[in-house]
């Protein structure tokens, strides 16, 4: 396999091929996931929960993201590499956001991801115009779970759905080249995916997105506590971690994961 470029990813999307993404936080898993055929690795700020034992992603610092991005970049071979801008690093000004994006980019991230609706368009434009590809993130945005009053499906009513779609279109117009949609009704995610030209990567957003992402520890059944409905345990019936990841990639590419009833809203 050759290294996946931004154009390569967009071309695949244009051909209707699904994109399989997983979160990744270290070099060993980066090599394993890459060799198993994962298209894109996300150094998610979910590392706050998964690695650091925090109750949310809010306490994650930019230096933590830089450290883990560097670890993943060393293990990665061909997969596209994204990293999250952590809470506080992009909320104040586009300039502050750019400085944080530069840190992640220098650490090896090929694309930075930030959460939020219309208010982020100026920042998305600022960063993308200056040469760092940007992924937007709408729906349930874990960094603002306090303001959202919990982990709930977003865009359930007509007004919420219309707002989400308008935000998605505005973010694409501002230069976002990918969008993560988290915890939204499958029908809304399908509608937004149809309306956009950029790839829409779903998590708890049903089967009709351009690709899927899961938290690595969730799909390997390493997370404690209740498993959210949209997570599938790929270790069940797998002979190894590699086999579980290969199954995930295969099911995303075939469109058989997520299952409309089992994993959707
Ligand atoms: O931090 C993360 O793991 C994420 C994905 C769940 C999309 O942002
Ligand atoms: Na995240």
UniProtKB/TrEMBL annotation:
Enzyme kind, highest EC tier: transferase
Active-site residues, Swiss-Prot/TrEMBL: 182
GO MF, any single term: 3-methyl-2-oxobutanoate hydroxymethyltransferase activity
HAMAP family, per the entry: PanB
Quaternary structure (record): Homodecamer; pentamer of dimers.
Binding site for 3-methyl-2-oxobutanoate: 45-46, 84, 113
Subcellular location per the Swiss-Prot or TrEMBL entry: Cytoplasm
Keywords: Cytoplasm, Magnesium, Metal-binding, Pantothenate biosynthesis, Transferase
Protein name: 3-methyl-2-oxobutanoate hydroxymethyltransferase
Keyword Transcription regulation carried by entry: no
Documented EC number(s): 2.1.2.11
InterPro entries recorded: Pantoate_hydroxy_MeTrfase, Pyrv/PenolPyrv_kinase-like_dom, Pyrv_kinase-like_dom_sf
UniProt xrefs under NCBIfam families: panB (TIGR00222), PRK00311.1 (NF001452)
Family per record: Belongs to the PanB family.
Transferase recorded as keyword: yes
Gene: panB
Source organism (scientific name): Roseateles rivi
Primary residence: cytoplasm
Enzymatic reactions: (6R)-5,10-methylene-5,6,7,8-tetrahydrofolate + 3-methyl-2-oxobutanoate + H2O = 2-dehydropantoate + (6S)-5,6,7,8-tetrahydrofolate
Task of the protein: Catalyzes the reversible reaction in which hydroxymethyl group from 5,10-methylenetetrahydrofolate is transferred onto alpha-ketoisovalerate to form ketopantoate.
Amino acids binding Mg(2+): 45, 84, 115
Pathway note: Cofactor biosynthesis; (R)-pantothenate biosynthesis; (R)-pantoate from 3-methyl-2-oxobutanoate: step 1/2
Cofactor(s) named in the record: Mg(2+)
